[in-house]
């Protein structure tokens, strides 16, 4: 059974989102997602400065099994990518909730309300 931290919000597409100071939302993929994907080998990050809308495809993770699109959990501007993951994508497999992928300066924080809490996300993964 996967562990789902309570301080995160979860998208049905398996991204997690963590609200930080100044409307910054840190984004990664859930433990469930990384275990389904297998060993990550590459991440195609969004460009810093790119404007994204909630639900918009903005990145791709590639594993030994497949490639999977990542979607912005909130609307805003990409302000940072985790370059450490560029060099070592397997860090996401080792620690998915510490290994964030990119940050969005959110312009619509209420979009976080549309995401699932840990209990709802756990239920959704058990039903799939």
Order the strands across the largest sheet as they lie in space.
1-2-3-9-8-5
Number of helices: 4
The CATH superfamily turns out to be RNA polymerase II/Efflux pump adaptor protein, barrel-sandwich hybrid domain
Q: What is the class in the CATH system?
A: Mainly Beta
What low-confidence regions span 5 or more consecutive residues with pLDDT below 50?
A: none
Helix content: 10-25%
CATH topology: OB fold (Dihydrolipoamide Acetyltransferase, E2P)
Could you tell me how far the N terminus lies from the C terminus, measured between alpha carbons in angstroms? 13 Å
Proportion of residues in extended strands? 25-35%
Order of H and E elements: EEEHEEEEEHHEH
Structural Rg = 13 Å
Number of strands: 9
Per CATH, the architecture is Beta Barrel
The count of domains is: 1
**Biggest β-sheet strands, sense, barrel:** 6 strands, antiparallel
Structural class: alpha+beta
Overall mean pLDDT: 95
Estimate the global geometry from the Cα principal axes. globular
Task: Give an overview in words.
The protein has 128 residues and is an alpha+beta fold. The chain has a single domain, classed as RNA polymerase II/Efflux pump adaptor protein, barrel-sandwich hybrid domain (OB fold (Dihydrolipoamide Acetyltransferase, E2P), Beta Barrel). 21% of the residues lie in helices and 34% in strands. Strand 2 and strand 3 form a beta hairpin.
């Amino acid at each position: 059974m996967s562990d789902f931290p309570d301080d995160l919000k979860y998208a049905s597409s398996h991204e997690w989102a963590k609200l930080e100071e100044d409307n910054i939302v840190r984004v990664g993929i859930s433990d469930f997602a990384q275990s389904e994907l297998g060993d990550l080998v590459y991440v195609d990050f969004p460009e810093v400065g790119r404007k994204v809308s909630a639900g918009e495809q903005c990145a791709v993770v590639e594993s030994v099994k497949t490639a999977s699109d990542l979607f912005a959990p909130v609307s805003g501007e990409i302000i940072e990518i985790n370059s450490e993951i560029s060099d070592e994508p397997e860090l996401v497999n080792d620690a998915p909730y510490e290994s964030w992928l990119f940050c969005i300066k959110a312009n619509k924080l209420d979009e976080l309300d549309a995401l699932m809490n840990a209990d709802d996300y756990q239920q959704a993964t058990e039903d799939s």
